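User: For my dataset I need records formatted as: sequence, then structure tokens, nothing else. Please produce one.
Assistant:
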Amino acid sequence: MELNGVPADRIQLSALAMTNYGHFTTMRVADGRVRGLSLHLERLSRDCRIVFGTDLDTERVRYLIRHALGERKGAATVRVTVFDPALELAHPGAAAEPHLLVTTRPAPAEALSPMRVQAARYVRERPEVKHVGLFGTIDRRRRAQLAGFDDVLFIDERSFVAEGATWNVGFFDGEHLVWPRAKVLPGVTMALLNEVHGGPVRTDPVPLRQLPGMGAAFATNAGVGVRAISAVDGVGFAEAHPILDVLRKEYADIPAQPL
């Protein structure tokens, strides 16, 4: 864990616990390369302007990721968090000086088992920003797991599907990839699949009541790529639908960009 390229200390990190204001992105790094690196950097830059009203040096971000990884080989999960250790809870309107916290951990397996998810009414604050305010997200995930599910799927007040706790959700209706038109975080993996998918894609409102008509459901994020969803509440989906293999191959074939 490094802050601006040096080990972070307790006082600096306390701002994340006490004020909890900032934004981040998480990426999978394999042998110094990242799928969708440019999109992760664009996200950090865009969110920094929204959250702090200032520009971000993305070349410095790349340097700090390389520094934090050092000589590490294989795959790692890297999170870059942008926050200001000096920002006070009582004065968030003060001029900010964003700092860069880079954390690394072993990457999870890319081929995870299908998951069962529970639908829950919830819309994240500022859903277009990947911000550090995760209480509501984790609370809904915890409730779903206590009820026997693997994760949670957010729906809005009209019971239209939005997104997962830390992933985008997609469906296959027999012809099209279908992404919900809703207030969601625009995911990097979702964007990459839209660029390379060989079949038709549409973005439309997806009412919860229409899920029984979908042939397959899946989650996407940078950590695991494409993961099958076997059920939403009591609605089941094919765990080995051919479209899932197509998407996984399309994603795997995307060239990774060097750090």
